[in-house]
């Protein structure tokens, strides 16, 4: 059985005249250690799909299994525990606590998490050991994104979800973040899913799922997975 499996997932907003089919019959599965890029233009349904994968939103219809568990069957309390313990989320604008240092931001994420990793070790892993006592305002965008990746990873999530993680970064910094995420997908026992509208990022992924208008338009494994250093954007 696949690690993650989505079957006939649909998500509707509004009704009658104002009905929006944000997702329409989405089917795919993902294996452990895969580095998956979900590619699509603005409004395609990428964030909606990521929110469903992260338990932040429930599908209108369909099934979503993660590690054998039917996430659609969860009530709100179970869903909250699922988000807290199983999912790491990385956002375009980092969403750090500005009144906490880098280290404190990561420590905060370990609260009520059984078997979390050592926050300092994880900050080292993302290359930030020299900046642990800095507040977000003293960090560059790339550094803030590293803190937010560390904050997601410290929980040892079963799934790391990244919504336009390079959207606010210059291309050089963005490339280092993508290289880091790609590396993490191989070294951690989970899957990494990156949502983007940037086709260049798809070149370095194992797997590319293209969506438009809430539907999958293609789903393939890259025959030649490029190194991050080989791409430009
Ligand atoms: N809460 C909501 N209420 C109504 N429509 C929404 C809501 N969230 C998203 N949508 C609509 O669903 C579609 C997909 O949105 P979204 O998942 O944010 O796309 P993307 O992240 O690819 O830009 C868009 O047409 C958007 O306007
Ligand atoms: Mg979006």
Topology (elements, then pairings):
Elements: E1 4-13, E2 20-30, E3 35-39, H1 46-53, E4 61-66, E5 69-70, H2 76-86, E6 87-90, H3 102-108, H4 119-125, H5 141-153, E7 159-163, H6 171-187, E8 191-196, H7 199-202, E9 207-212, E10 215-221
Parallel strand pairs: 3-8, 3-9, 6-7, 7-8
Antiparallel strand pairs: 1-2, 1-4, 4-5, 9-10
Helix pairs in contact: 3-5, 4-5, 5-6
The chain binds adenosine-5'-diphosphate (ADP) and magnesium ion.
Adenosine-5'-diphosphate is lined by residues 13-14, 20, 22, 40, 42-48.
Task: Note down, in words, how this protein is organized.
By secondary structure, the chain is α/β, with parallel strands linked by helices. It has one domain: Rossmann fold. The chain is built from 7 helices and 10 strands. It has helices spanning 46-53, 76-86, 102-108, 119-125, 141-153, 171-187, 199-202; strands at residues 4-13, 20-30, 35-39, 61-66, 69-70, 87-90, 159-163, 191-196, 207-212, 215-221. The strands form 2 sheets. A 6-stranded mixed sheet has the order 6-7-8-3-9-10, with helices on both faces. The protein has a 4-stranded antiparallel sheet with strand order 2-1-4-5, with helices on one face. α3 (102-108) runs parallel beside α5 (141-153) and α4 (119-125) crosses α5. The chain starts with a strand and ends in a 12-residue tail after the last strand. The model has no long low-confidence stretch (mean pLDDT 95). The protein binds adenosine-5'-diphosphate (ADP) and magnesium ion. Residues 13-14, 20, 22, 40, 42-48 line the site of adenosine-5'-diphosphate.
């Amino acid at each position: 059985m696949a690690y993650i499996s989505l079957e006939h997932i649909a998500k509707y907003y509004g009704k009658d005249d104002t009905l929006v089919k944000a997702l329409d019959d989405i089917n795919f599965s993902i294996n452990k250690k895969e580095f998956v890029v979900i590619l699509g233009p603005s409004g395609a349904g990428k964030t909606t799909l990521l929110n469903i994968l992260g338990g932040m939103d429930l599908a209108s219809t369909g099934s979503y299994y993660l590690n054998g568990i039917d996430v659609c069957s969860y009530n709100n309390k179970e869903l909250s525990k699922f988000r807290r313990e199983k999912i790491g989320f990385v956002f375009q604008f980092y969403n750090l606590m500005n009144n906490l240092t880098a280290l404190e931001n990561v420590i905060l994420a370990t609260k009520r998490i059984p078997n979390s990793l050592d926050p300092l070790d994880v900050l080292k892993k993302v290359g930030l050991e020299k900046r642990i006592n800095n507040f977000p305002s003293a960090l560059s965008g790339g550094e803030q994104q590293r803190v937010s990746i560390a904050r997601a990873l410290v929980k040892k999530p079963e799934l790391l979800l990244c919504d336009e993680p390079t959207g606010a970064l210059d291309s050089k910094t963005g490339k280092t973040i993508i290289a880091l995420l790609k590396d993490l997908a191989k070294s951690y026992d989970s899957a990494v899913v990156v949502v983007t509208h940037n086709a260049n990022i798809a070149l370095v992924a194992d797997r590319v799922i293209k969506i438009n208008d809430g539907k999958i338009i293609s789903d393939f494994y890259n025959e030649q997975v490029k190194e991050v250093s080989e791409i430009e954007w």
